[in-house]
Design a protein that fits this description.
Blueprint: E1 2-6, E2 9-11, E3 20-22, E4 29-31, E5 37-39, H1 41-57, E6 60-67, H2 72-81, E7 85-90, H3 93-96, H4 99-112, E8 118-122, H5 132-141, E9 145-155, E10 159-165, E11 170-176, E12 179-183, H6 195-203, E13 207-210, H7 242-253
Parallel strand pairs: 1-6, 1-8, 6-7, 7-13, 8-12, 9-12
Antiparallel strand pairs: 2-5, 3-4, 9-10, 10-11
Helix pairs in contact: 2-6, 4-5
């Protein structure tokens, strides 16, 4: 079984609020130069799921990310956990902010390696929090996707049985492979890399693939400024009867 895991680096969830701001155009999250990053937590659950399948039924685990060279350290982290191969699709920051371009670059890179038996990704990332990219990748590969997956019951070369979180239950599904799983943190607890794995990961080769992102450009994102960044308008007190106040309020809202 060939398994591909998609990972993404995101700003550290514990980053102090004062280290984060919104650009004047409201289309970019701006981080302080000293800000720290980490692997998206749901993606670590995806890596753990893939390694668990490797140990249970035998598999080759390839981890793929779309990033610049600074993303290599996060690929080495998952190699230390037990992944076999790491691939970085070289993608600049502007393209990474576009879900369609990111997905297109990932699909192109995966197809160069041949379509895997299984693709696993986190259900969403903690920065943009949209969850678009895995579905777009599944569409580009022509495979079904299911989310959120909270358990993996069994797997073979042809099928995989999973538990999907529903409103008031966990529904069980059998998927014919190839397929995409979008996993949630209820699935497992990611392992901590051991010293042997860390040392081996330092020497591992990371394959770099040139991006083929282009074509479709999604609508640029818009972010809401933090409270401290919002323009403060003068406060106006309305005097008079309730009817006068209501009329004045409606007039102000209509502007």
């Amino acid at each position: 079984m060939d398994i591909v895991v998609l990972i993404k680096r995101v700003p550290d969830p514990n980053l102090p609020e004062q280290f984060v701001s919104i650009s004047d155009a409201q289309d970019e999250v701006v981080l302080h130069p000293s800000s720290q990053y980490s692997i998206n937590l749901y993606d670590l659950n995806a890596v753990e799921a893939a390694i668990g399948l490797k140990e249970a039924v035998g598999a080759t685990v390839t981890v793929v990310t779309a990033d610049d060279a600074s993303g290599d350290q996060y690929l080495r982290r998952v190699l230390a956990m037990g992944a076999d191969n790491a691939v970085r699709v070289d993608l600049d920051g502007n393209s990474r902010r576009d879900s369609f371009k990111t997905a297109q670059a990932l699909v192109s890179a995966i197809k160069q390696k041949s379509t895997p038996s299984l693709v696993i990704a986190g259900r969403q990332s903690s920065d943009a929090d949209t969850g678009y990219v895995p579905y777009l990748v599944a569409q580009g590969l022509g495979i079904p996707a299911i989310a959120p997956v909270v358990s993996i019951k069994s797997a073979s070369e042809q099928t995989i049985n999973v538990g999907k979180l529903a409103d008031a239950s966990i529904d069980e599904y059998e998927l014919t492979l190839p397929a995409m799983l979008l996993v949630s943190n209820e699935l497992n607890k990611p392992r901590t890399p051991g010293l042997k794995g860390v040392m081996a990961a330092k020497k591992a080769t990371i394959e770099v693939i040139a991006s083929e992102a282009g074509g479709h450009a999604g609508a640029p994102p818009k972010y809401s400024p933090k409270k401290g960044q919002r323009a403060v308008q003068a406060t106006k007190f309305i005097e008079g009867s309730d009817e006068d106040k209501a009329a004045a309020l409606l007039s102000a809202l209509d502007k």
